[in-house]
Each structure stands twice: as C-alpha cells, then as structure tokens.
Amino acid sequence: MYLVVSRDKIMKSEYLPIIGVEVHIELSTKSKMFCGCPALHFGTKPNSQVCAVCLGLPGSLPYPNKKAIDYTIKFGSVFDCKISNYSKFDRKHYFYPDLPKSFQISQYDLPFTYNGKLEITGGSLGEKGNSKLEIGIRRVHLEEDTGKLIHKDIDEKRYTLIDFNRSGVPLLEMVTEPDFRNISDVVVFLKEVQLIARYMGISTADMEKGSMRLEANISLAKVKKSGSTKDKNLPDYKVELKNINSFKFLEKALKAEIKRQEKLLSEGKNIVQETRGFNETLGETYSQRTKEEEQDYRYFPEPDIPPLNFDNKYIQSATKKVGLLPKEYRKIFSKDYSLSDNYVSVLVSKKERAEYFVKSVNFGKKLSISPKLIADMVVNNRFDEKYPEPSSLVRAIHKLGKKQYSSIADVKRAVVVAIKDNKKAVKDFQGGKFAVVGFLMGVVQKHLKGNGNPNDIKNELLKQLQK
Fold first, then answer.
1. What is the pTM of this model?
2. For residue range 241-257, what is the model confidence (pLDDT) as tens digits?
C-alpha cells in the first residue's frame, strides 16, 4: 500500500497520483498583449475595452507588449529557468466562443524561458513539513488571454454571453513537470508561486478576480513493491482539471478525481484522456470534452510577429533588480533573527509586512529592542496596522517597556475568563489555527484595560490552551 497525502487525511492506496500543474497569471501591464487597449478589465463595463486587434477583426495587426515580455523573462529567471536568446510567438488553433480569432497567439517550441525548478518543503510520504522536494518547471511562456463567458438567465431562458474585455490581456503560463505525488505539495507549490508573483509586482495573482487561474493534470500509476516512480513507469494518459479558482477548490477536485480514477482502475477499466470540471455540490468531476493532443492545435509560427532575438545584455537587464523574495526573507527571519516558523510564515505572507518588519528591526537596534519582541507585536498585536511607520512602532514598543504592567495574578485571571468566554476560538486553536492567539490576547488586554504585558499574556495563554 502507498500513502496518498491530503490536508484532510492520509489514505491507503495501491495507486500513486502523478500530478502536474499549469498556472496562468495575468500580468499587471497598462495595456493588453498585442494592442493598446487597457489591460485592467475586472469590474469594467462588458465589451468596453476592445479594438480591432483584440476582437480579431480582418486586417488588424498585433504588436507585442515589451513590458509583458520583460516580466515573463524576469519571472522565469527566478525559477532558475534557461532564457532563450531566440524566441517566437505561435498560433494555437481551437474553436471556442471566447476566442474571437479561432486561434490564440501563444508560444510552442521556443518559449521565452524553460527548464527551471523550485524547491519546496513538502509533505511527501506522510512527512509533515520536513522533506525537500524539487519541482521541475518545463516552461514559462507568454500568450494572450481569452474572452470571458458569462452564463445568465434572461426571461426564464439560459443564455451564454461573451465579454471580450479580457481578450488579449497578457497571460503568463507556467507548466510544471509531473513531479507531484500528493495534493498537499501541489498547494504548497502554488501558494509559493502566487507569493513570488506578488513580491515581484508583476501581478496581483488574485484568484477571486481571475488574475491567477489553475489547471491540474492527473493520472494514477500502479505502485510496485519498491515504490518506484521513475518516468518510464508513468501512465500513458492524463486527465486535465480545468476552471479551478481557489486552492481549496483544487484540493477537493483532485481528491474527487483520484477517487474516480482509482475506482475505474480497480475495476480493470481504462481511463479516457479528457478534460474534466468539478461539481463542488456533488463532490464529483464531470467530463467536458476529449482532451486535445498537441497536433490538434495545429501550431505554426505567428506570421504577423517577427521572431525575437535577445542578446545577453538585454537578458541581464531584464532579470536584474528582482529584490528579496520570500525564501530570502525566510532565511533572514529564521537564521538571523531566530524567529519561530509560525512567526516567519505570517511576516513573509505579504511583501509590505516583511519590508516593514526589517525596517523596524533596524530601528529597534538603536533602542536595544529584540527582533522577537517586534515580531510578537506585529504578529500577535497587529502593531503594524496601528503604526504605519516602523520608527513609530519601535518608539511605541520602547514606551511600553517602561510601563507598569498588570500583575501575573491579574493576567492569569483575565486569561481564564477569556478562554471561558471564547470557546470557538479555543476550538480553532486546538484545530491548528494558531492565529487566534492574537485575538485572545486582545480579549485579555481588554479585561486588563490595556495594561497587560504582551509576553506575559501570550505565555499564560499558551500554557492554558495547551493543557
């Protein structure tokens, strides 16, 4: 039996999931990929930001957005991708209502970047956060986004409307190798990709607004006694899950598809290579269409856009000044500041917060205030929201250090009352939601009229909660 790890439970199975993902990220450029129409389309009046180029009208000619190309090359470099000195755009043909030209300008055999990797701390084989896993990045290329289909009831009839405002928006696509063997690792990887895009400022990567969208390819391999998962043992089919708009939705869809495929294989049936959606209400995936092979798209070089040549000077210019990324901040906070993993995770979750914390620590050195105390005030007391300037935060902490705090006995009594009156928060903590400690600290401070020592409150809370 093999262990299939998910966030909910570990399932015993004779089959090993083989998963690869495709990540689509809308780039935050002012104009679209091949025309001058505004790229910011969310919440705009339908079909108000279109022209002959993004509508694919006869005689219109596309011209590439340089900023989008710069962003793509810079993004690929962060994942150790090789950068092509020679690249081109291609036409990808398929017929769907949201594609006005009946082809998409994309990239095929000569993408801007390829053969990269990202190392994550995974949970393979049931391990909890202590295994290093290297995920291969097959390619990071650039294409134009499609229009958006809107399904709507009008006069008791079901219609599908099309908004072409999104058509032609620069869309970066990352394709991984099929290196994932469990769902948890997929989610860890995708959250890191989202965070990196936000740190770089190339996209909001907001899944609720569609600026980051996911697809997953999954198949199951029969596991031998050795547990071997070499490429030669991979299945000859894959099922693509499309229209995934959240990490939680992805988890549910993958679990449902693993269950479906496992059932079919255990019955001796073959699995059709196809594209499937996920019905969250039923908890099942459903067939959408037979999955196309590469030859079905009839790729050929885009005749209206000449090939692009990049010399080393341009590549160096496009990839410089990336700035500190999440992994660098984690290293600083963990090794240099000796902070716990929970603190590091919260501080790195937003670039603005990470930068704010570093500046605060530098100010704190002048007043002998430790990074741990500053981190405690930011993570548990949200002092970064109360004091927008790092220097103000440090002065406030310094002032608190001279304050007469409530006695330990008063703190203990206030903690007991807070725990008794907030049973849901206590239950959430026991379920692994450590962020509620900050909420409970606020409740205790309210009982103490703001006179409690944050460290005393936190220590007593943790002592009582962990009984």
1. 0.84
2. 998 989 999 999 999 99
How long, in residues, is the chain?
467
List the structure tokens of 166.
């999104």
261 residue type, one letter: Q
Domain hosting 351: range is 326-465
Residue 9 has pLDDT above 50, yes or no: no
The residues near 25 (Cβ < 8 Å, ≥ 6 apart) are 171, 172, 173, 174, 197, 202, 203, 205, 211, 212
- The first and second tokens of residue 47, run together, are 């079909």
Looking at the structure, tell me whether residues 304 and 341 fall in a common domain.
no
Residue 266's contacts (CB-CB under 8 Å, 6 or more residues apart) are 14
Number of domains in the chain: 2
If asked whether residues 148 and 170 sit together in one domain, one would say yes
CA distance 107 to 173: 10
Q: Is residue 220 domain-shared with residue 141, that is, in the same domain?
A: yes
Same domain, 337 and 294: no
What is the per-residue pLDDT for 124? 45
CB 7 within 8 A of CB 186: no
436 and 331 in one domain? yes
- Sign, CA dihedral 453-455-460-465, equals positive
β-pair partners for 285: 278
Q: Please provide the average confidence, as pLDDT, over all residues in the chain.
A: 90
Long-range contacts of 420-429 (CB under 8 A, 24+ apart): 426/465, 429/465
Report pLDDT for 299: 95
pLDDT category of residue 125 using cuts at 50, 70 and 90: very low
